[in-house]
Amino acid sequence: MARADAAWFLLTLFFAHFTMKISVILCVILSSALALAEGTQTWEQTKFEDFEKGTARGVAICSDGSLVLAPQFKQLYDSPSCFLWSVASY
Fold it and tell me: What is the residue range of 57's domain?
């Protein structure tokens, strides 16, 4: 019985040591990943060419580079294309 207790003690000690090693390794990996993270970056767009590269949604870009709220477009009527072609043929 003393032998079984000693074996159990050694097995428990081994797993405790193994668990501690894994915890330290995981902490090192996670902290290195956080160290490589980048901070916040800001930039300024002031010219028409800067805004022209992107997609303007809901705003109009003036030639001087200023932004104004664009008018909202609303569809009034949707006619079938065959009707339009029949009118265009006259």
Answer: 2-36+46-69
Q: Which two tokens stand for residue 89?
A: 């043929």
Sign of CA dihedral 7, 13, 17, 19: positive
Residues 40-62: what's their mean pLDDT? 78
* 79 falls within a domain: no
Which class for 16: exposed (0-12), middle (13-18), buried (19 or more C-beta within 10 A)? Answer: exposed
Q: Give the separation between CA 6 and CA 12, rounded to whole angstroms.
A: 10
Q: What is the pLDDT of residues 17-42, one digit of tens each?
A: 778 888 888 888 888 777 776 778 88
Q: Give the 3-state DSSP-derived string for the chain, with helices as H, strands as E and coil as C.
A: CHHHHHHHHHHHHHHHHHHHHHHHHHHHHHHHHHHCCCCCCCCCCCCHHHHHCCCCCCEEECCCCCEEECCCCCCCCCCCHHHHHHHHCC
